[in-house]
Amino acid sequence: MSKRHEGRTMLVTGAAGAIGFATCEILVREGARVMMVDIDREGLEKRAAELGDAAIAHVADVSDEEATRGYAKAALDVFGHVDGFFNNAGIEGTLAPTHEYPVDEFDKVLRVNLRGMFLGLRYVLPDMVRRGRGAVVNTASIGSERGLAGACAYNAAKHGAVGLTRTAASEVAQKGVRVNCVMPGVIETPLLVGMLEQMFDSVEAGMEKLGQTATLNRVGQPREVGDVVSFLLSDEASYVNGAKWEIDGGALATIRNDV
């Protein structure tokens, strides 16, 4: 039996992070060649080396237009085309009430999380449209569906991610390209740990408390997001477009009364 992504080429941003790298591992295991993009050179090169010849590291700031144009061009130069794009890079930002939130921090989070996502679409989609084939998955959040106290910038950006997804999906579907997004819940990543350090007395206490927001009563793992991304980038998801997939252990499915 052939592998799901045998012979295909993939582009992943935020690839040195937990979800990005877990997804790269899955894509490579399923037969793809992957260009891994991240601003963290040391982390990126280390991660890419773990995946061997199937992975190529490209250092770039996704919020910078020329850098984004650069990684999109580099992928085409190396692979000839990109079959799948996981538009994943993001940062959590500072936690503070909206009325006290630092303006420069708000701008930074929106620049990376929303502008960076737009730029990725802007420079990766054209070749997919030209070829009449491709799939994109953007990273949103369960924060795209709810308010998240103390995280106005992150929350605004993740609401925007759903809007970008739906708009792009409606524009390129008839050209053979699908665009969807995933909405991870509480996933065990360094980004989450950074937020928990600001919100709770200890990371462990935060993990236990936030895990209770899911009906599965636990925090999710990066690979559990990566598996869904891999599916959405595959032909198995050929009739899925403009969708937002919750990967949250059931957190958005119900109102818990025992937390």
The total count of helices amounts to 8
Shape: globular
Query: Fraction of residues in helices?
Result: 40-55%
Query: In the residues, how many domains can be counted?
Result: 2
How is the main sheet built?
Answer: 7 strands, parallel
Mean pLDDT level: 94
CATH fold name of the largest domain, please? Rossmann fold
The beta-strand count equals 7
Give your account of this protein's structure.
This protein is of the alpha/beta class. It folds into two domains: 9-184 and 222-235, Rossmann fold (3-Layer(aba) Sandwich), CATH 3.40.50.720; 186-219, no CATH class. 46% of the residues lie in helices and 15% in strands. It is built from eight helices and seven strands. Strands 3-2-1-4-5-6-7 form a seven-stranded parallel beta sheet, sandwiched between helices. β4 (84-87), α4 (103-131) and β5 form a beta-alpha-beta unit. α3 packs parallel to α4. The longest helix is centred in the middle third of the chain and has 29 residues, at 103-131. The N and C termini lie far apart (45 Å). The mean pLDDT is 94.
